[in-house]
Amino acid sequence: KFIVYLVASSSELRPEQRDFILMAASKPLTALNGDPVAVEALLRDVFGIVVDEAIRKGTSASEKVCEWKEPEELKQLLDLELQSQGESQEQILERCRTVIHYSVKTGHPRFFNQLFSGLDPHALAGRIITESLNTSPYTYEIAPVFVLMEEEVLKKLRALVGWNSGDGVFCPGGSISNMYALNLARYQRYPDCKQRGLRALPPLALFTSKECHYSISKGAAFLGLGTDSVRVVKADERGKMVPEDLERQISLAEAEGSVPFLVSATSGTTVLGAFDPLDAIADVCQRHGLWLHVDVSETWVEGERGVPFGCLEGEEEALTKFCSVSPRADSVAWNPHKLLGAGLQCSALLLRDTSNLLRHCHGSQASYLFQQDKFYDVALDTGDKVVQCGRHVDCLKLWLMWKAQGERGLEQRIDQAFALSRYLVEEIKKREGFELVMEPEFVNVCFWFVPPSLRGQKESPDYTERLSQVAPVLKERMMKKGSMMIGYQPHGTRANFFRMVVANPTLTRADMDFLLCELERLGRDL
Q1: Residue 177 near residue 336 (C-beta atoms within 8 A)
Q2: Residue 240 and residue 223: Cα distance in Å, rounded?
Q3: 282-286 long-range contacts, Cβ below 8 Å, gap at least 24?
Q4: Which residue, of 39, 77, 138, 373, is most buried by count of CB atoms within 10 Å of its CB?
């Protein structure tokens, strides 16, 4: 405990109190404080370790994607307990190496496990600068560069949606962006809820597909709406929301005494990569006066040229039907840290609203931060638009990467992902023992590996049960070997299948071939 003693005179001080006060005039504390040469030497050593272990080895196909250890063994290897005494710099550097060594290398070309992967050097440079400056973009006075930069990046993202004006904010992940949308839609309908809370509200209903991200239900629970307020709309066989059932669910909710207020559509569902029919859904929302939120967290938004962002030249007509974001939406959640590879975390909530709804909904006018008599334009103090006070700077990595790549370079990155996804699909069709769950329309390629013992056994009554056991076994084997990582899941009545996500911009056809060959090697005895 740190205690400040207030005393009338030094004669009243006990010896230990006098020693405590004298510390303020003593030399800097240990652990490099006050020694810029030692600080620079430490950081150079740490950066050297990062470049060697996390970047060079962590992105090399010849290295392991992970070094699997059981939890108790890993605890011992990391020596996690915090002690009363500090350690030497040599020990600290060794700890840095150990942390990197036993961490999963998400920049590895064989890391297919999540919707994010790869390591963009310009985005990483932005992240390093961000962490070094250690600021929060709530006021212009302490983050002038990033306040202006965030506004410019959000403006560009809104333009890609098709909006010439609007608002937005960077959020700590797509889940929070979705929760913001729910809160804003509720506030717009019932502004008294900010002061009076749930007492100001009738029973509310929001609508989303059964294929939506789980954060919609979590957001409803967090905001006090309750998960029962989430009405699940049917999806077709490809995972797209059925607009006719949306109409039915709205009528049913009204008949039960609930007030519909929002529809959350999805462009690129988490598992199947399905795109809801946004125009038809927007028509429904317009008829009923509902807020339309579009979750494109797993994918991207439309390009300025009228071509869906990332579509191959000449394929616009084929792809426009599912990959564009309707400018008729009221809000859009988008994660550049996924398919664009900006690095965790980089999530934007974009709004068509021009009435300063974010600030009205969330503002509290804290006088110690948002003084109205500052010497500059206080409209630049954007921190009152968000729920957080301290907030991470997430715009620099995207801005720097965009500056380096240009819009065309980012589009080419997406083109490459689509091309490799199509290559993988065609290879799956050629190989015995592989079966597509469905033809993909995005970079999510879902498939089963059917081991030799199950081939030709589809009519067996226990086929589905036995097939479900294959993916977990192969996942364990690949991780313990460290050869690759790929996610799996059941889906409805479908047995566990693999979901391959083609997102890393450094991937080649050789990596697709390796994936299939490695599954064959790992599963040949099953």
Answers
A1: no
A2: 26
A3: 282/326, 282/328, 282/329, 283/243, 284/243, 284/246, 284/247, 284/250, 285/328, 286/328
A4: 138
Name the percent of the chain in helix, strand, coil, to the closest 5.
45, 15, 40
Amino acid at site 385: K
94: left (phi over 0), alpha (psi -120 to 50) or beta: alpha
Cβ atoms 347, 297 nearer than 8 A: yes
Cis peptide before 345 (omega within 30 of 0): yes
What are the 10-residue block averages of pLDDT along the chain, 526 residues in total? 46 70 60 81 97 98 98 97 95 98 98 95 98 97 98 96 96 96 98 95 97 96 97 96 98 98 96 95 98 84 38 37 70 94 95 97 95 96 95 98 96 94 97 97 96 95 97 98 98 96 96 98 97
Distance of CA 99 to the CA centre of its chain: 23
Between helix 470-481 and helix 509-523 the angle, nearest 10°, is 110
In the prediction, which pLDDT does 300 show? 59
Q: How far apart are CA 507 and CA 263, in angstroms?
A: 36
Q: Mark residue 197 as left, alpha or beta (left: phi above 0; alpha: psi -120 to 50; beta: remaining).
A: left
CA distance 250 to 136: 41
With tokens 């597909």, the residue in question is: 209
What's at 308, amino acid-wise? P
Strand ranges inside 15-166, DSSP E: 111-112
**Order of strands, sheet of 291-296, starting from the edge strand that comes earlier in the sequence:** 167-171, 347-351, 331-334, 291-296, 259-266, 204-209, 230-233
Secondary structure class of 206 (helix, strand, coil): strand
Work out the burial of residue 347: count CB atoms within 10 Å of its CB; fewer than 13 is exposed, 13-18 middle, 19 or more buried.
Answer: buried
In order of 349, 394, 521, the CA distances from 173 in angstroms are 10, 10, 37
Q: Which two tokens stand for residue 308?
A: 């869906």
Nearest CA among 475, 447, 449 for reference residue 66: 475
Q: Which of 314, 291, 310, 315 is nearest to 299 (CA)?
A: 310
Element (H, E) at 74: helix 71-78
pLDDT at 297: 73
What is the rounded distance in angstroms from the CA atom of residue 120 to the CA atom of residue 38?
30
- The count of other CB atoms within 10 Å of the CB of residue 510 is 10
pTM score = 0.90
Question: Residue-wise over 182-216: b if at least 16 C-beta within 10 A, else e?
Answer: bbbbbbbbbeebbeeeeeebeebbbbbbebbbebb
The three-state secondary structure class of 115 is coil
